[in-house]
Amino acid sequence: MPDLITSDGNIRQDNWAVVPRPADGDSLDIPDQPSLIPADLWLAGKEHFENRDDIGVWLDSHEEPEILAGVVNELPVIAVNFPKFSDGRGYSTARLLRERLNYRNELRAVGDVLLDQLQFMKRCGFDTYVLRADKDINKAARCLNFFTQGYQAATDTDVPLFRRRAS
Amino acid sequence: MYVYDEHDRQMAAERVAQFRDQTERALAGELREDEFLPLRLQNGLYVQRLAPMLRIAVPYGMLRSAQLRRLARITRDYDKGYAHFTTRQNVQLNWPAIEDVPDILAELAEVEMHANQTSGNCIRNTTTDQFSGVQADEITDPRPYCEIIRQWSTFHPEFAFLPRKFKVAVNASEHTDRAAIQVHDIGLQMVHNDQGELGFRVHVGGGLGRTPMVGPVIREFLPELDLLTYLEAVLRVYNRYGRRDNKFKARIKILVKALTPEGFAAKVEEEWSHIKDSPTRLTAEAINQFKGYFTEPDYQQVPDVTDSLATQRFENREFDQWISHNVDDHKKPGYTIVTLTMKKTGTPPGDVSDRQLEQIADLADHYSFGEVRVTHQQNVVLADVRKDKLFELWQAITPMGFATANLNTLTDVICCPGGDYCALANAKSIPVAEAIQRQFDDLDFLYDIGNIDLNISGCMNACGHHHVGNIGVLGVDKKGQEFYQISLGGSSHHDAAIGKILGPSFARDDMPEVIQKIINVYVDHRTEEEPFLDTYRRIGIEPFKERVYA
């Protein structure tokens, strides 16, 4: 299992598996380790996963986070998949999970996660990142911290610069 | 104009350091080309036909003389001694070396300039009317709002990887639209509502390119304090639902069309209802702070009408023509707005040398409080010129090549760099502009035929805004040969319209004669004082077709 980057730039061991969506007709095969399963399948079989702190979900970039409205905080981990780093839907998904659905637990970026996108993910509420395997994890802290502030309010701050200036 | 505070300076410096790091990793092979691509594009860096191209942001077209001098120095030290004013009020360098770009950005940051988001699938430079703040018929000065949008959109973490590029334009004039807002992804028209409150009419989904469209209104009145939350709602709906499967169907206009303007507006309203009272909502205090950067300069008491100006005009026909065409009314008695035309025949439209950039800086210092504005027609405006200095100014700029009195006429061509520079182009555009300028070299004839927008693009991406030219020219590639398609009847103003294609395309050598025939049809059919566009709308495209393809 790859190492995990946290939003403060630290690296930690991780053993969560992302379970791919089974092909039509196949059943979901959950491995014997903490697992992230497709969010809609978790919803469909929710009663089986009651009080399981080793089962979380993942949302693909086209999936709507609103399907998890009201139940987000039953999940220990929600992952959002970036099928391609240039697909920016996951940033909106993250903000909606945090700011609209009030999700408080771990929000993880998975998929085509590269160094130069980490700063945006952090501001949108992701707190862990699984960097694509060929990228140098030791550069993550630097890439997370090029900027000491931003102009806008986002998940990380509800005070946009124009309000800080005025005070 | 806006001046950086410590926050802006810090972020500008951090951005330079970040791009330096990204460039080093790219050159070291740690970033694949497709991974570096959006990073460099969001810093304005293209890889072009002959060399890289760097597009430098000029927020809503405003430049100070010190910035012009720095640009001049950069073109000398890092480029070939010239720059190009673009159709989105920005500046381009055609020959920088990739490894020099971080140094260029550092030099720009020293004079409060940058290349942020001048390309890529993100929110681009916000544009506006070049006469903002100095014209009489203005709801209010739109520039503080442009700066508010600039700051909100800069490094916005949610909207750095949109389906496609995104352009916002603001207009505040009641009777004119020099910012072409209806052909932008978001066009904001400043208005007062029935209660006299200030706000915006919001157009979404206009644009040029492959599927040209005039943007429908999705909200008749948006109160000014709600500007950013509403923009955020529009962008979020677009980011979530805009098409990503096909680059040519990824602009917001396709989404607006698919959902219908009403359906799209409903989605935006729903999203907005959740965030309209969020901390992103503007405050009156914040708006006033931004307005404080755009206060009136130190205008002097200058006589509005003088005998000497009348005499100078009477005695000098060329000066008189220049005043009639290149000088506009100012809200302040005794002052005028002067447009320096960058359209001298034989020079690519919008191109300026390092020396000319410095001359413009000197002119700004001497005649216009040290500031200029770049126009989307690729000219440069001195917005605050004393009437009693006009003759002196005209004498100064004539040898510099800035006094060609063809503003808004047929030869004030809007033109992209085209196949001479751009890797995307199907055909050259600059030689076509020049050939047409040579064909119509008689100023009296140009004045007689009145204002005509002639816009030339070298490809479908429409950087030369050909769809909204009264006469539009589009370069196309036919089996490796350059051909040119003509459209008629476009407009980028309040009566915005997309031009209609005339018919089969023409070889480059035929273009001056084809344009001549189109003008001849107009001259034959026009009634007294009728502008080209009105004649076209009255008689339709058929008479033009008959003559051109006879």
Summarize the structure.
Chain A has 167 residues and is of the alpha/beta class. Helices cover 21% and strands 18% of the residues of chain A.
The CATH superfamily label of the largest domain in chain B reads Sulfite Reductase Hemoprotein, domain 1
Poorly predicted regions of chain B: none
Q: How many discrete structural domains of chain B?
A: 4
Helix content of chain A: 10-25%
CATH class of the largest domain in chain B: Alpha Beta
| H and E order of chain A | EEEEHEEHEHEHH
Q: Going across the biggest sheet of chain A, name each strand in turn.
A: 2-1-8-7-6-5-4-3
Structural class of chain A, by secondary structure, is alpha/beta
Structural class of chain B: alpha+beta
**Unreliable stretches of chain A, pLDDT < 50, 5 or more residues?**
none
- Per the CATH scheme, the topology name of the largest domain in chain B is Sulfite Reductase Hemoprotein, domain 1
- The fraction of residues assigned to DSSP E strands of chain A is 15-25%
User: What CATH architecture label of the largest domain in chain B applies?
Assistant: 2-Layer Sandwich
Q: What is the CATH architecture annotation of chain A? A: 3-Layer(aba) Sandwich
Using the CA coordinates, give the radius of gyration of chain B.
Answer: 23 Å
**How large a portion of the residues of chain B is in β-strands, by DSSP E?**
15-25%
The geometry of chain A reads as globular
Please provide the count of β strands of chain B.
21
Q: Could you characterize what this model shows?
A:
The complex is a heterodimer of chains A (167) and B (550). With 167 residues, chain A is an alpha/beta fold. The termini of chain A are far apart. Chain A has one domain: 3-Layer(aba) Sandwich (Rossmann fold), CATH 3.40.50. By secondary structure, chain B is an alpha+beta fold. Chain B has four domains: 105 residues, Sulfite Reductase Hemoprotein, domain 2, CATH 3.90.480.20; 160 residues, Sulfite Reductase Hemoprotein, domain 1, CATH 3.30.413.10; 91 residues, Alpha-Beta Complex (Sulfite Reductase Hemoprotein, domain 2), CATH 3.90.480; 135 residues, Sulfite Reductase Hemoprotein, domain 1. Helices cover 36% and strands 17% of the residues of chain B. In chain B, the strands form four sheets. In chain B, strands 16, 17, 18, 19, 20 and 21 form a six-stranded mixed β-sheet that branches. In chain B, a hairpin with a 2-residue loop joins strand 18 and strand 19. In chain B, helix 3 runs antiparallel to helix 12 and helix 14 packs across helix 16. Classes of the chains: A alpha/beta (167), B alpha+beta (550). At the A-B interface, helix 2, helix 3 and helix 5 of A face helix 1, helix 2, helix 5, helix 6 and helix 9 of B.
